[in-house]
Amino acid sequence: MSITTSGERPMSLEELRGALRQFASERDWDQFHSPKNLAIALSVEVAELLEHFQWTPDADSALLARDQYSNVREEIADVLLYLIRLADKLNIDVLPAATEKIQLNAAKYPVDRARGNSKKYTEL
């Protein structure tokens, strides 16, 4: 499987997972990709993403300069890739897991109580 370049059809989630497996295997990185290490790496990448927004007023956080947008895009990609790799190592199919989580959240946050409210479900 080759890595998709710009202009081509984006990979499916399954193809992306396979590409990540191949990428790690070719570099003999599976020895380093324990769930613990991947979770730590994921946390680091999320922190790198947050750095781009640190001290930015809320109203300005959606108005990124071109170079900042590019950097944020790369960090988001890193977060996604580590998350997919971690899920793969734990045999978690992320799409059903996400679908189930949305359903759980819908039950915790009914529209009539949660609409326009940022409180945690235990406080609604």
Describe the 3D structure.
The chain is globular, with a radius of gyration of 18 Å. Helix 1 packs across helix 3 and helix 2 packs antiparallel against helix 3. The chain is mostly helical and 124 residues long. 5% of the residues are buried. The longest helix has 24 residues. The model has no long low-confidence stretch (mean pLDDT 93).
Q: What portion of residues is helical?
A: 55-70%
CA-CA gap between termini: 48 Å
- Please trace the helix and strand order, writing H or E for each element: HHHHH
- Class by helix and strand content? mainly alpha
Mean pLDDT: 93
Q: For the CA atoms, what is the radius of gyration?
A: 18 Å
Tell me the overall shape: globular
Largest sheet: none
* SS field, number of helical segments: 5
Beta-strand residue fraction: under 5%
Q: What low-confidence regions span 5 or more consecutive residues with pLDDT below 50?
A: none
Question: Number of DSSP strands?
Answer: 0
Give a quick set of tags describing it.
124 residues; mainly alpha; 5 helices; 60% helix
Structure in a nutshell:
With 124 residues, this protein is mostly helical. The chain has helices spanning 13-26, 35-51, 66-89, 94-108, 111-114.
